[in-house]
Give the backbone structure.
Amino acid sequence: MDGLDAWFAELKDPRPSGTRRRDLLDVMMIALCAVLSGGRTAVDMAVFAEAKHDFLGKFLRLRKRSTEPRHLQSVVPPTGSRPVPRACFQKFVARFGDTCSDVIAIDGKALPRPSDPHRAGSALHMISAWSCEKRLVLAQIAADHKSRESAAVLELLKFLSLRGTTVTTDALNRRRDIVRQIVEKGGDYALALKGNHRAQHADVSLLLKDPRWERGQKHLTADGDHGRIETRTSLVCTEVAGIQKRHRWPGLRQ
């Protein structure tokens, strides 16, 4: 909760001064906690505030036992009636990103197409940055098509604090401009390499067939999934000067 006042300082209280029975930041935090718990309406938020009064009182300045729905409604309006304070919330969530020192997984997922035939069109493609340690989506951005996902990833990286983190993506987003931006922001990367990078895939495959790496840093895992036993072998190769001389990937180390 430290610094919460600063992140939401530019958010203006829409309530008349005579009706402000609760502090604006208290109301915003009640709304946030309620939404994270599955609430969707002002009534849900008021019920949540009543049920969790003792918990919320540990970090909020609660003076009354209940929060009326109309009180919340005046501060957190329905979507579309007033602009949502997105910038304030992004600053708030960014604080979690600043404390991350683990893996940030970037991936794209297509949302279901609308069932209404009058609203037919291509499915919305969302790109998310997921903190594996915090179990939190740090940032999210929409791409109008999967073929434009990499451009959206570059835009998404601008919102993230990457120093001390390791960023992962799938093979689709294995691009030099993406890697360069990760390195420039102080992050490391672990990217998938598949046949879509044919020349580099062939060179790396040939390198890892060298018997030296069978005796080097090696790790095996085995588990059952999808009706089969999966055995995965990890080999770590640090002699990548030849690969780097030919392919020139920013910051490649192993």
